[in-house]
Amino acid sequence: MTFEEKRRRLVESLTSRKILTDPKVVRAMLMVPRHKFVPEEAVSSAYIDSPLSIGQGQTISAPHMNAMMCEYLELKEGEKVLEVGTGSGYHAALCAELVAPKSSESKGHVYTIERLKQLAEGAKRSLKDTGYENIVTVIHGDGTLGYPEAAPYDKILVTAASPSKIPHPLKKQLKNGGVLCIPAGSKNFAQNLYIIKKRGEKFETKRVSGVRFVPLIGKFGFD
Ligand code: SAM
């Protein structure tokens, strides 16, 4: 079976399980070649709905988690997005397909921060190989500080688990009306995925599901 066929099967399985419902997210998941973002030894498992090791003790999230986070964020063409936790670069590419589809003239952009230099560099290479280098900017640094240079953001997603106290720079760097999608809780155990909407000076927080992510490590994260 070709990678395209495997990818289509994965997407069909996510839609039949009602995890994927938004046609724009379906399109993005069909467009982005996940097998180009995983290490050589994991290529044959790239279209299994499972997290995979990407080295340095880190993982690329399971596709159903990518799909869920993209749907909760309701990404639109032209939006400016910040991702904390670049990892492989795959989720950043998915966001890029939603805010600036390759086929469009859209000015959307994705900034993504990774604390581990080797992963940031690998992600940059994969994003270049797949043609997303002009839509995604990879930054090596501590994402708990956000990325004030390009703030404010329409949407922020965090793909590592924060302590229950959400890093305040991320809330600050969100536009009024913007959405933050973040897993939070304890370092290695129970965590929840939260959708936080900024309404003026107020934040509306909704818990959407239980999850398990690697820890967010940094000044406003875990030690
Ligand atoms: N979104 C990624 C993908 O598509 O492959 C998966 C991310 S992985 C589950 C979480 C990533 O967050 C790891 O690569 C980890 O090094 C990174 N991370 C943890 N704390 C961080 C921080 N303070 N700033 C930036 N990245 C961080």
Quick structural overview:
The chain is of the alpha/beta class and about 220 residues long. Helices cover about 30% and strands about 25% of the residues. The chain is built from 6 helices and 9 strands, in the order ααββαβαβαββαβββ.
Which spans have pLDDT < 50 for at least 5 consecutive residues? none
Computed structural class:
alpha/beta
Q: What is the number of E strands?
A: 9
Arithmetic mean pLDDT? 97
**H/I helix tally:** 6
Principal-axes geometry comes out as globular
Q: Can you summarize the main beta sheet?
A: 7 strands, mixed
Rg from C-alpha positions? 16 Å
How does CATH name the architecture?
3-Layer(aba) Sandwich
Distance between the termini: 44 Å
Number of domains: 1
Query: Strand arrangement, largest sheet?
Result: 5-4-3-6-7-8-9
Instruction: Name the CATH superfamily assignment.
Output: Vaccinia Virus protein VP39
The set of bound ligands, ions and cofactors reads:
S-adenosylmethionine
Question: How would you describe this protein?
Answer:
The chain is an alpha/beta fold and 223 residues long. The protein has a single domain (3-211), classed as 3-Layer(aba) Sandwich (Rossmann fold), CATH 3.40.50. The chain has helices at residues 3-16, 23-31, 63-73, 90-99, 117-129, 168-172, and strands at 52-55, 58-60, 80-84, 109-114, 136-140, 153-158, 174-185, 191-199, 202-211. The chain is globular. The termini are far apart. The mean pLDDT is 97.
Q: Key features?
A:
single chain, 223 residues, alpha/beta, Rossmann fold, 7-stranded mixed beta sheet, two-stranded antiparallel ribbon, 6 helices, globular, binds S-adenosylmethionine
